[in-house]
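User: tokens in, sequence out, please.
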């Protein structure tokens, strides 16, 4: 079965845009998805990238990290919304219904890989200089 990730992005775009402008929603969603991911073993191999993406969004939201495009923020929010969305595209008997979530998140993380790398560099300089 093929997962149409671009359709998922289109379907969640309006909701992601409303979350983009609501700082409280972003914090709530990140908190909820961190709990959700910690309960799913399938995400263990990408947990570091997901946590980095969520940290990047929080630093952006707090005004600490400004070198971030709106498209990247929307992609991360779409990923979070999708993980929290009860709709599963792949039949539930595959990996307890989480295989589609994993496929979507891997795809989205690859789309923002360059921005994640830039954020990691920035965070490293912040930690080294003691500013964060």
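Assistant: Sequence out:
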């Amino acid at each position: 079965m093929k997962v149409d990730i671009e359709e998922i992005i289109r379907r969640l775009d309006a909701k992601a845009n409303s979350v983009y402008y609501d700082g409280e929603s972003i914090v709530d969603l990140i908190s909820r998805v961190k709990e959700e991911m910690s309960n799913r073993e399938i995400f263990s191999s990408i947990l570091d990238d997901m946590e980095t993406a969520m940290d990047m969004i929080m630093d952006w939201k707090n005004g600490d990290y400004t070198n971030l495009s709106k498209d990247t923020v929307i992609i991360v929010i779409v990923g979070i919304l999708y993980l929290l969305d009860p709709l599963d595209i792949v039949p539930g008997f595959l990996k307890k219904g989480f295989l589609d979530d994993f496929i979507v998140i891997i795809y989205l993380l690859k789309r923002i890989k360059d921005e994640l790398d830039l954020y990691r560099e920035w965070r490293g300089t912040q930690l080294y200089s003691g500013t964060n």
